[in-house]
Amino acid sequence: MESSKFKLALIQMNVAETNEENLKNAVHKINEAALQGSDIVVLPEMFSCPYKASNFPVYAQKDGESNWKLLSKTAAKNKIYLVAGSMPERDSQNGEKIYNTSYVFDREGKQIAKHRKMHLFDCDIPSVNFHESDTLSAGNEVTVFDTEFGKIGLMICFDIRFPELARLMADHGAKMIIVPAAFNMTSGPNWWEIMFRTRAADNQLVMTGCSPARNEKASYVAWGHSLVADPFGKVLKQLDEKEGTLYQEIDLAEVDTLRQQYKILKSRRLDIYSLTEK
């Protein structure tokens, strides 16, 4: 029987230097979250390697290779939905192209969604000089997948800065958007919480952000603070910067109720303006 209620787990994990260490840690924490009764488990952005542009081609794997197989097997073993954060993906047809990619596996371990980060993060500020576009290619698909709880959108980090993408996901029926993300020590305190609260309130849905834990010794220092924001734009729960797992009970029926009460999406003047996909 389908239900709108489920338990969400956001795994804010430390990221080590090797792929093997990171996958071992991720699987251990996924197993722990499943034992706590979680239905949907989320990993952070670039959980398999240190977040550094030059690392992405080195750590990249193609669809179906060892990381993919292990994560699929772990989802099936635990009978959970697994949103596998993101990893560097080497294109199967064109091996020169590398993407920042998130895979979603269902309770049987079947891949039901794949999102390639659409907006590449390039910045030149005093505290951070970082260019994803040096080594990554951009994805071009709006990703929404089906569960027995309702439709869920998937984006990666910098994608959240573009309100059009979240609105397209809402138009596709998304009642929650999951965002594996690694905001830094400048963007985090300035924009992390406000981005999630704003996208939630604008689109009357649940927003969830899953970050790596903070490592002050890393070349790119993540903000942490994985969180869940409700359709009113209220933060329901938020971690600090340390390694940990956030658990939150979600009822997506509340999204339907709010949209019926406050008819924001229905009140748009689509006779004057519109948002379309190409």
Describe this entry's structure for a reader.
Helices cover 25% and strands 28% of the residues. Strands 1, 2, 3, 4, 5, 6 and 15 form a seven-stranded mixed beta sheet that branches. The protein has a six-stranded mixed beta sheet with strand order 9-10-11-12-13-14, covered by helices on one side. It is α/β, with parallel strands linked by helices. The N and C termini lie far apart (36 Å).
Quickly list its features.
alpha/beta, 6-stranded mixed sheet, 25% helix, 278 residues, 7-stranded mixed sheet
Evaluate the radius of gyration.
18 Å
Instruction: Work out the number of β strands.
Output: 15
The dominant shape is globular
Mind describing the biggest β-sheet?
A: 7 strands, mixed
Portion in helices = 10-25%
Beta-strand percentage range: 25-35%
User: Which sequence of SSEs, written as H and E, runs from N to C?
Assistant: EHEHHEEEEEEEEHEHEEEEH
Distance between the termini: 36 Å
What do the pLDDT scores average to? Answer: 96
What is the count of DSSP helices, taking H or I runs of 4+ residues?
A: 6
Taking pLDDT < 50 over at least 5 consecutive residues as the criterion, the unreliable ranges are: none
Structural class: alpha/beta
